[in-house]
Amino acid sequence: MGKYKGIFWPALIGLGHIPKVKKDQFYDQGGRYKRATGDEKMSFYLRHPVFRNNLSLFFNMDEKTLKLISRMTYREFCTFYGDLFKTGKSTRVDEVADAFNYLLEQDEKGNIRILSGFYSAEEVSRDPDKARPRAIFYKGSSVKPAAIVIPGGGFDSNVNEYEGFPYAMELHKAGYSVFIYNHRVGEQLHVKDSQKKGEEAVRDTVVFLEWLLEHEKELGISMKGYAVFGSSAGGLIATALTFSNYGDCSSKRGFPRPCMIAPIYGLDWNIEVRPEDAGVVVFTRVGEGDAFGFDGAAGKFQEIKAVLGEENFDAKLLSNFPHGSGLGLHTDGEGWMKEAIEFWETHQKK
Fold this sequence. Notes:
CATH class: Alpha Beta
Strand order of the largest sheet: 1-2-4-3-5-6-7-8
Largest sheet: 8 strands, mixed
Radius of gyration: 19 Å
Shape: globular
Helix content: 25-40%
Number of helices: 14
Number of strands: 8
Structural class: alpha/beta
């Protein structure tokens, strides 16, 4: 952990806590939110009033880890995270600050809500951790279909700041209502095997989608033609919601299939495409030699295209698009979100 040893040690021995933040750090003299930078402490972001006292909506992980990272600046956190997991995350600090400030602007306009309570009271009484899933709702056009964004994090976290806020900003600027969705993570899933964790996270997401379908009118959204944007583990969830060989896919659970899924460095390379998947619409981007193996999906591209139809499958293997590149600024993936929106809009008209 090198230079971060002094930051991590208090939390590791159980004395850590997320520091309190004075109110005047969040607001200017006029009572408006101050613009944030990448040099703010993580405690500033975790405790920001935009999240309505939900400490895990900037970066969602177990409470011990949140305490552990809370004394870092966001810039330090990105460098540590990028070095530890060998991702492209460490270079995108300003991108995150811009997207976070956009969130603050939209909150001041009354366009942001924090949503919870997707599981029934009976299910929560049996498993209190099922009260944990949250969504950040950006209110957009009630005519356009909704976009669901599922950040990655290996089912042990949700990297909202990196694969949530920037995506939501671009989608919301295009007029869409957007939901950044956080499923249960880590020990909250009550299983240790990574595949089992993924299956539990998919079930959380199914419950959320069913909740959205029941609350369309109340939220002022349209789920007709909705899309799911997911990176890394979020892309695996998007895949599992859509293709018929997964246990909790839309066809088996009885909810409408997404109009499009966009698994970014997240399409499951173990996917089995069946004839009943014809017509599924997929937009995907992945980097060569992806650090987490997602470039293995490229070997399936032709097989998938043969079943879905060439017009329904937009996939590229990119030479410079490291895992964790988010929107891909200054990589070969730059502009993928604009391309994905255009692809989605082409299929909305069908």
